[in-house]
Amino acid sequence: MSQLIECVPNFSEGNDLSIIKQITDEIEKTEGVKLLNVDPGKATNRTVVTFVGSPEVCVEAAFNAIKKAGELIDMSKHKGEHPRMGATDVCPFIPIAGITMEEAAKYAQQLAKRVGEELNIPVYLYESAQKNTARNNLSVIRAGEYEGFFKKIKLAEWKPDFGPSEFDAKRGATVIGARDFLVAYNVNLNTTSTRRANAVAFDVREAGRTKKDEKGKIVKDANGNPVTIPGTLKSVKAIGWYIEEYGVAQISINLTNINVTPVHIAFDEVSKKATERGMRATGSELVGLIPLNSLLDAGKYFLKKQKRSTGVSEKELIKIAVKSLGLDELAPFKPEERVIEYLLKDPSKAKLIRMNLVDFADETASESPAPGGGSISAYIGALGISLGTMVANLSSHKQGWDERWKEFSDWAEKGQKIKDELLKLVDEDTNAFNKIMAAFGLPKATDEEKKARTQAIQSATKYATEVPFRVMQLSYSSLEIIKAMAETGNPNSVSDAGVGALCARSAVMGAFLNVKINASGLDDKDFVKDILAKGQEIENKTQSQEAEILKIVNSKISS
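Now predict its structure.
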């Protein structure tokens, strides 16, 4: 797997879009970088930019952006609600794929060294890039902010890791590091009071608050250190602030480990603590990007609280999450612009399933050889399990069956996963065919080219055999769900389960035809023998299962 990192620099400008555009232009002109998101905030006067690429190109893009920000932003004139200390305030590297945290930290150190030495900007390392644990926390480094750093930088313990020990009045200082994926998330309150918002922030953040006695004096332990009262949420940093742009106070939250405290738990806990203090959480705001699973988990969480089936589509889960969290309260929330996986998708690899039904039929009926039987088999299989999943969801919501909601919800979740995989294979079967065609188009003038071409054809053909075989496996596995729905599901929908079984059978048999025709062109006879034997076994079992399901369906219809 190629190495991929995410870089999320925060620039101290959120109002002048021309300045922001000049900075992001520096990122986009770096070949190999993909700019995912630009999120300016007026009240914070800060823009969070997200881009991805290989480590080397991200270092180059970040360096150019930091340089340009230093030229365009004057920190001596900067005002904003968010803590800050530099034109490029913070620039973290986040490992995404094929790279360890330790490796990401080394690239962050490379960038920090360049910024300090070539741009003469004071640079501090943080999180995994900083070996000194006494100064690896961003909030500790940034304490005193821009205004306090003219004195702070002169202290021996706050000598920059790179660059001069002189605070740059125009550009400030920059913090560069490597960290895990962080979700920046704000919860909106029905108050304008920063003090009351801070009280809620102290209730929930892991660091909590300093304990005070009845007279308001700080309580100290036997060693003279202040005693703290921990907050209720782990891996959470939070402060309260007032956002004039929206006319409300917010709890500004950094979720530093969404596996420990996910977004939906943070929202519910803030809502609870706000209520205890006479306030209400009215919605929330995402700053930057979020992983897909965070929204899917949130959707399932809120559906479970309602005792509703979680086996609904990805789109529906996201809709539930957005509405439940109030992510669209302050501005429209567009998942295609905020979910990192959606931004990394290659639309060309999902051409067919993005079509409407008429266009898909027309494309299939055209003179082009693809999509063909393999793609159609995958789609028929997806329709079959979709019917089974529909019966599960209808059963989960059936009046009088309230206590059985989870039983059917579990079946529906399994069905959704199979459906989603089969839909991907609709396009992948056509992609596999195109790979074969591309291999046949390779040059064959020399013996070496002929050998490479033959190997490419064999490799592509093998893959084109494996794709429909996967369709067979998934479609056969869907029959377990369809049979359960025929036996125990909503009796009014038993015919739908029957049609689902017919679709699954057709998908298995149709895909097997594609396995056989593609396997016939392979030189690896052991592979061919094995996959044909397994395919025949799946086909036989499928026909047997289909017969049993139709028997159940017809008996219930006739009775």
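The domain at 347-558 is CATH 1.20.120.680 (Four Helix Bundle (Hemerythrin (Met), subunit A)).
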